[in-house]
Design brief:
It is a single chain. With about 60 residues, the chain is an alpha+beta fold. The protein has helices at about 20-30, 45-50; strands at about 5-10, 15, 60-64. Helix 1 (about 20-30) packs across helix 2 (about 45-50). The longest helix has 11 residues, at about 20-30.
Length: about 60
């Protein structure tokens, strides 16, 4: 059974699934459009995402 892989997200200030982290990075980099779930995030929020070390290496911080 696969475990849960989480990263510490500075934009959301909580642990999130690594796949969602990558999705947020793609939105921040304007590679994909945000869904309704992400529509409330601002350019300021995505600026935090763009500065995150996970932009370079989105490896999990927590595996459970």
């Amino acid at each position: 059974m696969a475990g849960t892989e989480l990263v510490k997200c500075p934009m959301l200030k909580e642990n999130i699934d690594v796949a969602y982290c990558i999705e947020l990075q793609m939105i921040a980099n304007k590679e994909i459009k945000p869904t309704q779930t992400e529509e409330h995030f601002t350019a300021k929020d995505y600026a935090v995402c763009l500065k995150c070390k996970k932009q370079v290496c989105p490896t999990p911080d927590i595996i459970s």
